[in-house]
C-alpha cells in the first residue's frame, strides 16, 4: 500500500495506491498549511494519509511507502530535503509578499521518513513529466517538457530521453527566469520581475485586482480589457515556452495546472502563437498540447515516483 502526495502552493492532495495498476482511492484535498512551525506541512501530509486510510478502512501501518510530488525548490537539510517554495515559505520574500509565516524552508523528507519506510520526493513538474511520459501526452517522446500554469509556474524537462534533475532536484525552475524590470512584480522567492511574478495564478490578482478565474472568465466572455490582459500574460509565458523549445530542441510540451486547465480553449492558441513560425528550423515539428492526464496529473505524478 502506497501513499501518493501532491503538494502545491494552494492545496495538498493525497491518495492511496492499493495495487500495481493506476487505481487510486481515498483521495483527499485541503488548503496547504502555511501557519505554525515549519514542520506543520509534513504533519499535515501524515495526518491526511492516516485520514485517507481511515476512510477506506485500511490500517495506517500498511502504508509503508510515500511518493511526494511537490512544488519547489528544495534545499538539503541535515535530515534530507526541505521545501523552500516561494508560495509556501513566507521568509523568502519577507512580509511584503503577504504569507502568514517567516519560514525559509519547511522540513519534509526527515519527518516523512519517521512515518514511512520508503519516501521518494521530486519536484512536482519533474514527477508530472514522468507521469505524462508514461501515461499521458508525452508517451514515446525523448525530447519534451511538462509545464504547469497554476499558483506558480514550473517546468519538468527531458532531453535525449533523460529527465533532468539538477544538483538538488531543482532543474526546470524556469518560472524564476528574469523577464522584466517591473518593480511591482515581486515573486515569493524574493525576485522582482521573474516569469512567476508576472503570470502565476497568485500574481494575476496582485497585478490586475481580479482573481485569475474572474479575469479569464471575463476574457472568455469577450471583455476587451480582460482579453488584452490575457494576451499580455500569454506573451510573457509564451516567450518562456519558446525559450525552452529553442534551448532544448523539444518535440512537445504538455501543459497543466489549474489556471491553464480551466481555460485551455482561451489560452492554448495564444501561447502556441508565441512559438509557431518563429525560427522554423527549431520550431517546425513542435507541438504544444494539454496534459494528457488532465487535472489528475498531480496524483499520478506522485504514483510515477513509486513505480
Task: Give a written overview of the molecule.
Helix content is 36%, strand content 21%. The chain contains eleven helices and 13 strands. Strands 3-2-1-4-8 form a five-stranded mixed β-sheet, sandwiched between helices. Strands 11-10-9-12-13 form a five-stranded mixed β-sheet, sandwiched between helices. A hairpin with a 3-residue loop joins β1 (2-7) and β2 (11-17). α6 (212-220) packs across α7 (224-248). The longest helix is centred in the last third of the chain and has 25 residues, at 224-248. The radius of gyration is 19 Å and the shape is globular.
- Which band does the percent of strand residues land in? 15-25%
By secondary-structure content and strand pairing, the structural class works out as alpha/beta
The helical percent reads 25-40%
- Biggest sheet overview: 5 strands, mixed
Give the overall silhouette.
globular
Task: Write a brief structural summary.
The chain is α/β, with parallel strands linked by helices and 307 residues long.
List descriptors.
five-stranded mixed β-sheet, alpha/beta, 11 helices, single chain, 307 residues
